[in-house]
Amino acid sequence: THILTLNNVGNGYVEYTSVVPSKGLPTCEVSTCTVTFDYNTTVRITAHPRADWRFTGFTGDVDRTKLSTNPIVVTMNGDKTITATFVPLASAIPVSNWAILVGIGLMITFLVIRFRRLV
Predict the structure, then answer these.
(1) Phi, psi (deg, nearest 5) at residue 20
(2) Higher confidence at residue 22 or residue 85?
(3) What gap in Å lies between CA 20 and CA 28, rounded to an integer?
(4) CA–CA distance, 106 with 104 (Å, rounded to integer)
(5) How far apart are CA 28 and CA 119, in angstroms?
(6) Residue 14 · residue 45 · CB < 8 Å
(7) Among 2, 18, 27, CA closest to 81
(8) Which of 66, 118, 18 lies closest to 110 in space, CA to CA?
(9) Cα–Cα distances in Å, from 61 out to 24, 53, 88, 97?
């Protein structure tokens, strides 16, 4: 048997499935999970970002041409460690911050209009 270690970096989780049932749960929702598979078992690994996050890629024991592919498939011909990385979306600004930005924008617009009337 071989050990598959799955790591999550950021806010997301990894789901794994195989033709042969494995030990453990079919998802890894914490930072690190380990699962044992029989030799030559094919495992499909899918990364799922949480709301306002995105998946950027896999690292570790992954075919270098498949780092940003989702899902990936690995063959358990040895122990493997794979990390899924998630980053926040750039547009994920909290609503309260948007209100502040809109308020500042309105204040600047008001001051520009007022200054033009004085000149």
Answers:
(1) -95, 125
(2) 85
(3) 18
(4) 5
(5) 64
(6) yes
(7) 2
(8) 118
(9) 20, 24, 24, 40
Specify the pLDDT at position 12: 92
Provide the β-strand partners of residue 72: 45
How do residues 100-111 score in pLDDT, each as one tens digit?
665 666 666 655
Global pTM value: 0.70
Write out the two tokens for 88.
């926040």
What is the residue-averaged pLDDT of the chain?
Answer: 81
Residue 64: the pLDDT is 84
More confident residue, 93 or 37: 37
Distance (Å, whole) CA 95 – CA 87? 19
> How many residues make up the chain in this entry?
119
What pairing do the DSSP bridges indicate for beta strands 32-37 and 41-49? unpaired
